[in-house]
Amino acid sequence: MSSLEPISVALKYGFLVVLYLFLLWVALSAARDLRGRSSARRTAASGGGELPEAGVAAMSAAPDATGMYSAASVGPVGVLSRAPRLVVERAPGHDPGMIYDLDGEIVLGRGAQAEIRLEDPFASAAHARIFEQGGILAVEDLGSTNGTYLNEELLESPRPLHPGDRLRIGDSELSFEVD
Fold first, then answer.
1. How many other CB atoms are there within 10 angstroms of residue 114's CB atom?
2. Going by DSSP bridges, is the β-strand pair 106-109/128-133 parallel, antiparallel, or unpaired?
3. Distances (CA, A) of 46 to 30, 41, 58, 90
4. How does pLDDT run across 105-151, given as a tens digit for each residue?
5. Is residue 31 very low, low, confident or very high in pLDDT (cuts 50, 70, 90)?
6. 130 and 102 Cβ atoms separated by less than 8 Å
7. Residues 90, 40, 75, 136: is their CA dihedral positive or negative?
8. Does pTM top 0.70 for this prediction?
9. CA dihedral of 166, 162, 39, 62, whole degrees rounded to 10
10. Is residue 168 within 8 Å of 148, Cβ to Cβ?
């Protein structure tokens, strides 16, 4: 029996512990993401859903625009005339409370072409975009690897933004506000 044998056994068990902790983290992350997807499907099935292409008139007919607000109550119409902005709640490389004014089309991501650069390892180069459609602001995922979440629901199609909505990309979270 050599003097290195206890060390190699300890290293083997240490590696196994780290491996199992990693697998647990992956499983918990997947479960959290799947819960978000299933609630988004329930919302779409119950009459909520996608941003219509027909414009504002069709938009106001949607019974539940984001799953959090009724389209008839706090509607997104007229948001553009009220200084819309994103406020950083938490994001790697950004100070909480940092404000980004939303004027024109805005791309969020890790790449150099993004207007709002996120130093988040879970963000794609061009992760999501905020754009005007029929006088309102909408957000869409640009085919990112890890998805974009609006109010903890995975974006599967463009959705309108309402004051107070929370946008999550990886570990970055921003809130939508208007003056």
1. 19
2. antiparallel
3. 24, 9, 17, 32
4. 999 999 988 999 999 999 999 999 999 988 899 999 999 999 999 99
5. confident
6. yes
7. positive
8. no
9. -170
10. yes
